[in-house]
Amino acid sequence: MPRRDLYHDAVVHALEKAGWTVTADPFKLGYGTRNLYVDLGAENLLAAVKDDQLIAVEIKSFLGDSEMSDLERALGQFVLYRGILAELEPERRLYLAIPRYAYDEVFSDQFGQTVIRQHQLRLIVFEEDEQEIVQWLP
Fold first, then answer.
1. pLDDT along the chain (138 residues), means of 10
2. Domains, the chain, ranges and CATH?
3. Which of 127, 46, 134, 54 is nearest to 88 (CA)?
């Protein structure tokens, strides 16, 4: 089992405040003889269209010694998990949950926006102290 990120509980609470139900903690992706673990699986029932939205969420704190090393690791996990998820549960969307300061420092400039666009990242930006989601991208 993977070690939980520092902001694991904050993201769970933020998702719940936003109307999501965490259905897996962690969300296991078994593929052949390999097991991968995305931090969370969640769903949100949209009453207006009577359809479930399913997501998987990988949480990253970006508190390492190097923002670029943190980005490389997060991006690698995101791409790996997204590919396996597309095979196993194509209706489930993968998101990378990051604190607002990580968005501001790593993703808000031209470089970060290029990374988001080129790798088709889906981000959940959260405020760790308030345990609230402040932005979904896209």
1. 86 94 94 95 68 89 95 97 96 96 97 97 97 96
2. 8-137 (3.40.1350.10)
3. 54
